[in-house]
Amino acid sequence: MSPTIGDVASLVRSKNAGPFWQTLDVFLPDDDAFRRVAEAPGLDEATVARAYRLDPATVRIFRLPDIRVVKISFPRPTPQGGVHDRDMHAGQQHVPLARLPLHP
After folding, report:
1. Confidence of residue 20 (pLDDT cuts 50, 70, 90)
2. Main-chain dihedrals φ then ψ at residue 85, nearest 5 degrees
3. How far apart are CA 78 and CA 82, in angstroms?
4. Among 37, 58, 98, 101, which is disulfide-ready with 12 (CB 3.0 to 4.6 Å)?
5. Which of 104, 25, 96 is nearest to 60 (CA)?
């Protein structure tokens, strides 16, 4: 079985990026781990969109080698604090990303 992003990362977290966007951060422990995740064939806009039921055109992936972080941002499914918001701080939204295999 292929290792997951969560297996390789030091930390995978999610948070609000304002009331209408959320962001997922993948912190990697070293340059090799960063390359494994940042260059993984399974880490692209289409895969993230499938995992979160999004339009791939709305997913933004930022690979930041200087700080060994991959940041993924996309619109929240409902505005923060709205009547249908089930995770006001988007603090539990990292799990699908952490479970993605590095090699599909």
Report:
1. confident
2. -75, 120
3. 7
4. 98
5. 25
Q: pLDDT tier at 54 (50, 70, 90 boundaries)?
A: very high
Q: Is 85 exposed, middle or buried (0-12, 13-18, 19+ CB in 10 A)?
A: middle
Nearest in space to 24 (alpha carbons), one of 83, 56, 69, 66: 69
Taking only the tens place, the pLDDT of each residue in 56-93 is: 999 999 999 999 999 999 998 776 777 776 666 666 78
Single out the residue of 81, 102, 87, 83 nearest to residue 39, CA to CA: 102
Q: How confident is the model at residue 9 (pLDDT cuts 50, 70, 90)?
A: very high
- Per DSSP, 65 falls in state G
Q: Is the CB of residue 62 less than 8 Å from the CB of residue 70?
A: yes
